Amino acid sequence: MTLPLQLHFKELRFRTSYLLFSYLLSLLIMLKYNESIFFLETYALIYLDKKRFIATHITEVFFTSIYAGVSLSGAINFPYAYYHCRNFLVPSWYKSQVWFLSILVVPSSVLFFFCMFICYFSILPSFFHFLNNWKVALNYALEIQLEARIEIYTYWTLQTAYFLSNTTFIFFTKLLHSYLLDNMITLHVQARKFKKYFLVFLCLFTSFIVPPESFLQIVFVIVLASLVEVLFLVTCVFFAKNNV
C-alpha cells in the first residue's frame, strides 16, 4: 500500500526531473547557438555601431557563454516552472487560493518580462549612448581608446536587467497583493507610519551605493523619493475610497 506522502514525493520527483530536463535542454540549445545569444546580449552596444569586444583569458568566452545561457534558460523556463508548481499545489488548495495565486503571479510575471524587454532595447542603449558621448568629450583633452570586455559587459547588462525587472516585479507584486488582500488599507497604514524612516534610509543608501557625485546622488534621491510619494498617493486614493 502506497502512503499519500510517498505519492506526493513521487510526483514531486517526476515534476522536478521534467523541469531540470527542460532547463538542461534549453541550456544546451543556447550553447549550441551561442553566437545568436551573444548577438542578443550585445545588442545594446551594437546599437552604437560598436562591434568589437576583447577577451583577456582563453576561457573567458566559454564562461561568458555559460553565464548567459544559465541566466536566459532560467528566464525561459519560468513559465514551465510555474506550471509544475501550480499543478502540484492546486489539488490541496481551495479555488479561491488558486485564483489568488493566478491573479498575483501571472500579471507580475508578464510585467517582469516586459521590463526585461524595455531594459534591453530601450534603457541600456540610451545609457551606452550617454557613455559614448562622454568618451567623445574626453577625446578633446587626450586620446583615449576604449574597448568593451565581453565578460564584464555581459555580467553587467544581465545583472542590471534582472535587478530592474526584479525590483519592478517585487514592487508590483506587493502592490497587487495589498490590493487583493484589503484594498491597500494595511499598505497605506504602513506607508504612513514608516515613510519618513524609509526616506532617511534612501538617503543613506544613496550615499553608500551611488558614486560620490553631488548631482548624481541628488537625482537618485529625487527619483526614488518621487516613486515613494507616488506609491503613497496610490494607497491614499484607495484608503480614502474605502472610508468614504
UniProtKB/TrEMBL annotation:
Keywords: Membrane, Mitochondrion, Transmembrane, Transmembrane helix
Protein name: SecY-independent transporter protein
GO CC list: TAT protein transport complex
Gene name as annotated: ymf16
GO biological-process terms attached to the record: intracellular protein transmembrane transport; protein transport by the Tat complex
Gene Ontology MF annotations: proton motive force dependent protein transmembrane transporter activity
Annotated organism of origin: Porphyra umbilicalis (Purple laver)
Compartments, as annotated in UniProt: Membrane
Lineage: Eukaryota, Rhodophyta, Bangiophyceae, Bangiales, Bangiaceae
Family of the protein in this entry: Belongs to the TatC family.
Main location: membrane
UniProt entry tagged with the keyword Transmembrane: yes
Topology versus the membrane: Multi-pass membrane protein
Tagged with keyword Mitochondrion: yes
